[in-house]
Structure formats: structure tokens, C-alpha cells
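Page 37, continued from 36.
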């Protein structure tokens, strides 16, 4: 989408464009209210600012849409397609990696009560697995801050992807 199209989009189209980035109405409203943006960098900067901070409830709601690392998101939604693309580096035929991620996911979910969230784009599967193992040592408070940051990074990265199409 071109920046001018983004700035001129009616509210329904704007919501449909932004919701797959992160399903957070407050974030979407903040971006919509700040239009028009003179540059893409100002749009991305504002998107990050609007996501800082995400509340605990906003993180929990957004997390409901994220599959486990190593699992492919199902469905035809824009969000599922984005997730599959972001996790494309995790090869499901690598049984050792798949097993290690599944074990790590289980341990993480037992400890923190939610799926492990990481910005997978730009990371190797080994980077992801190492981060998962490292983050298992965090306290719930430490992990909550990291998860919110990862969610912000994912939202802005997805917005950049939308704007480059």
C-alpha cells in the first residue's frame, strides 16, 4: 500500500489493513487519529509510540492470535499468512529442532501460562531456540516486558510489510 493510499483510506479499510499487524483497537485508533503521515518513517515511528506500552490485557488479547513457534498458523487470514511468512525459516522437516521447540514451548507455557512469543523474522531457528531457553530463566515480570516488546516489534514489522506491498 502506498502512503497516500494509507492516509486516504476510509476507516474500514484502515482497520482491515492494521488489524493483522496486531489486533489492538487502541493501537489502530491511535494510528488512524494521527493521519496523515508525511513519510513512512513517521508512520512507523508513530506506530511504535502507540504500542508503547501495550497493557497486560492488550498483550493477552493479542497473544490469542499467535501460534506456537514451530507451528504453522492455520487459516486464510492475513494474520495467519504473516505468521507463516515470519516463521518460514523454521523447517518442520528438521525433527530435532521441531522436538526441541515443542519441548521448550511446553516448558514455557507451564511456567508462564501463554505461548512463547518472539519476533521470528530475521532470526535463525537456532537463535529462536536459544532465546526460548534463555527466557525460561526469566521471572514472570521480566518475561512480561520482553513479550510486550516482541509484540511491538512484530506489529511494526508487519506494518512495514503491508506498506511495502
Amino acid at each position: 500500500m502506498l502512503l497516500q493510499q494509507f492516509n486516504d483510506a476510509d476507516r474500514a479499510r484502515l482497520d482491515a489493513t492494521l488489524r493483522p499487524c496486531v489486533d489492538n483497537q487502541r493501537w489502530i485508533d491511535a494510528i488512524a487519529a494521527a493521519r496523515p503521515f508525511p513519510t513512512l518513517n513517521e508512520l512507523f515511528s508513530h506506530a511504535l509510540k502507540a504500542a508503547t506500552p501495550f497493557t497486560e490485557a492488550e498483550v493477552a488479547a493479542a497473544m490469542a492470535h499467535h501460534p506456537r513457534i514451530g507451528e504453522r498458523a492455520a487459516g486464510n487470514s492475513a494474520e495467519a499468512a504473516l505468521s507463516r511468512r515470519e516463521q518460514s525459516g523454521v523447517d518442520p522437516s528438521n525433527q530435532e529442532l521441531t522436538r526441541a521447540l515443542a519441548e521448550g514451548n511446553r516448558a514455557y507455557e507451564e511456567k508462564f501460562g501463554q505461548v512463547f512469543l518472539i519476533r521470528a523474522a530475521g532470526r535463525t531457528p537456532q537463535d529462536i531456540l536459544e532465546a526460548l531457553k534463555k527466557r525460561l530463566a526469566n521471572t514472570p515480570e521480566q518475561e512480561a516486558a520482553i513479550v510486550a516488546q516482541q509484540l511491538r516489534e512484530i506489529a511494526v514489522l508487519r506494518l512495514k510489510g503491508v506498506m511495502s506491498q
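DSSP finds nine helices and no strands in the chain. Flag for discussion at group meeting. The chain has one domain: 3-163.
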